[in-house]
Amino acid sequence: MSLPSENLHVSGESYAREFNAYDQLASFRDRFCIQPGTIYLDGNSLGLLSRDAEAALLGALEDWKRLGIAGWLQAEPAWFSLGEELGARVVASCAERVCSSVGSAEA
To answer: What span, in angstroms and rounded, lies between the C-alpha atoms of 99 and 107?
Structure first.
């Protein structure tokens, strides 16, 4: 696939539509709750609600409703260790990036 024609005016609507046709991330658009007729350009917010986040949140609320305090150990995932598990992922991700950066700097 080639990018849009160089003959199109860069700021024109035709150019934007042709360029969008080659967007490799376009399939992710359906994973977000986008209000019709809205162009979302706000970089200073949480962003649009993703359907994945909505499902996770609704699942956690259902667990809370169904399990009450027992959710600390019986919810999936159990709330008791959730903070530690998420923290471990963040630390592992940061360590991987640092190691990658150091490795590439030495090369």
So the answer is: 12
Model pLDDT for residues 39-69, shown as the tens digit of each residue: 888 877 888 899 999 999 999 999 999 999 9
Amino acid symbol at 33? C
In whole angstroms, give the CA distance from residue 84 to residue 95: 16
Q: Where are the domains of the chain?
A: 77-107
Supply angle C-alpha 105, 106, 107, rounded to 5: 95
Question: Helix, strand or coil for residue 25?
Answer: coil
Instruction: Tell me which DSSP letter residue 91 carries.
Output: H
13 band by pLDDT with thresholds 50, 70 and 90: confident
